[in-house]
């Protein structure tokens, strides 16, 4: 993937030096974090992340009444810098907490963790982060499905009951039935995903210019421009991970990206598969996957945990694993 993008930078990018700089800024931390976490099998990185994330979450709860400091244009941001950043943070928190509950490790703090998940969902709604909210709900459902705490048939029945109750509430409670349609479109949108039009047009231009190899890693495409300077002011807003990878790296780079992320997912085993999915799902709306000064480093920690143990050891986190009696 790195070699493919280096070649693309020199052959097709409008800003080759900047593209290579951004590529190195992503690839070196990605490899370093994944390798370090994957080799360290004695430390619980997920619980460590959750400990700090919980402090940030609860600080945000305390800060809710201070509207002038914790809201941007009416959207909640907690103690973070922006509602979109809180959307990423909240979704990651819900995903990690749901994973821990599904693994059975949070036996003593299960009630507290569930309360924190509920608080995070409420705060995500307040932040107006569509990607964060929908991703968090999917993570809760996925953790429920992947958990070994219940047989599949009771899971299906309970799931149907929960969905049915939710639909009834939406139909009977006017406030809820009005809140959902208002939450989905962004402020000022006359149609769904109108705010993504410019990003989609940029993607289409980049893909059309060089569909096979793309037009440069996380740099804008300007036809006829060839600038070899290093610029920190070039901003590329791909919109989602698909636009970013396909538009910037082309078909070849996309295949390579799918291969190495797919390898991590395969190594994660069934239960830890959620950890591999969390960064990808969140990046469908906010591309922080390659931004090492944002949430990306936490994503790489999750991938390191996915590689830390093979499938035979995927029950490592289950403290009450049943013992198989020896043959006599």
Blueprint of the fold:
Elements: H1 2-12, H2 16-39, H3 45-62, H4 67-70, E1 71-72, E2 75-76, H5 83-103, H6 110-127, H7 130-146, H8 152-172, H9 174-183, H10 197-209, H11 241-268, H12 273-282, H13 296-308
Antiparallel strand pairs: 1-2
How does this model look, in words?
There is one protein chain. This protein is mainly alpha-helical. It has helices spanning 2-12, 16-39, 45-62, 67-70, 83-103, 110-127, 130-146, 152-172, 174-183, 197-209, 241-268, 273-282, 296-308, and strands at 71-72, 75-76. A two-stranded antiparallel sheet has the order 1-2. The chain is globular and about 60 Å long.
Taken as a percent bin, the fraction of beta residues is: under 5%
Could you report the average pLDDT, rounded to the nearest whole number? 79
The number of distinct helices, counting runs of at least 4 residues, comes to 13
Query: Which parts are unreliable, with pLDDT below 50 for 5 consecutive residues or more?
Result: 310-328
Largest sheet: 2 strands, antiparallel
Order of helices and strands: HHHHEEHHHHHHHHH
Strand order of the largest sheet: 1-2
* Chain oligomer state: single chain
Number of strands: 2
Radius of gyration: 22 Å
Give helix % range. Answer: 55-70%
Shape: globular
Distance between the termini: 54 Å
Alpha-beta classification: mainly alpha
């Amino acid at each position: 993937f790195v070699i493919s993008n280096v070649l693309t930078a020199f052959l097709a990018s409008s800003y080759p030096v900047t593209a290579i700089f951004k590529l190195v800024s992503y690839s070196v931390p990605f490899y370093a974090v994944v390798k370090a976490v994957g080799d360290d099998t004695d430390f619980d990185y997920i619980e460590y992340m959750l400990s700090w994330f919980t402090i940030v979450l609860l600080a945000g709860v305390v800060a809710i009444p201070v509207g002038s400091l914790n809201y941007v244009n009416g959207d909640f941001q907690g103690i973070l810098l922006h509602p979109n950043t809180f959307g990423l943070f909240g979704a990651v928190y819900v995903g990690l907490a749901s994973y821990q509950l599904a693994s059975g490790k949070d036996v003593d703090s299960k009630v507290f963790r569930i309360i924190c998940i509920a608080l995070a969902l409420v705060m995500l709604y307040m932040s107006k982060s569509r990607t964060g909210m929908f991703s968090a709900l999917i993570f809760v459902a996925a953790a429920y499905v992947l958990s070994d705490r219940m047989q599949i048939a009771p899971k299906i029945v309970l799931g149907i009951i929960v969905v049915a109750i939710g639909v009834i509430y939406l139909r009977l409670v006017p406030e809820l039935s009005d809140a959902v349609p208002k939450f989905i479109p962004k402020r000022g949108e006359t149609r769904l995903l109108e705010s993504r039009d410019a990003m989609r047009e940029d993607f289409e231009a980049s893909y059309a210019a060089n569909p096979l190899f793309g037009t440069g890693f996380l740099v804008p495409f300007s036809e006829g421009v060839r600038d070899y300077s290093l610029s920190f002011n070039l901003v590329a807003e791909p919109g989602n991970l698909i636009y970013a990878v396909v538009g910037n790296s082309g078909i070849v780079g996309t295949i390579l990206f799918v291969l190495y992320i797919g390898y991590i997912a395969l190594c994660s085993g069934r239960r830890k598969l959620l950890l591999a999915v969390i960064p990808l799902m969140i990046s469908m709306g906010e591309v922080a996957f390659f931004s090492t000064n944002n949430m990306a480093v936490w994503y790489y920690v999750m991938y390191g945990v996915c590689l830390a143990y093979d499938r035979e050891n995927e029950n490592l986190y289950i403290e009450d694993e049943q013992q198989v009696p020896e043959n006599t």
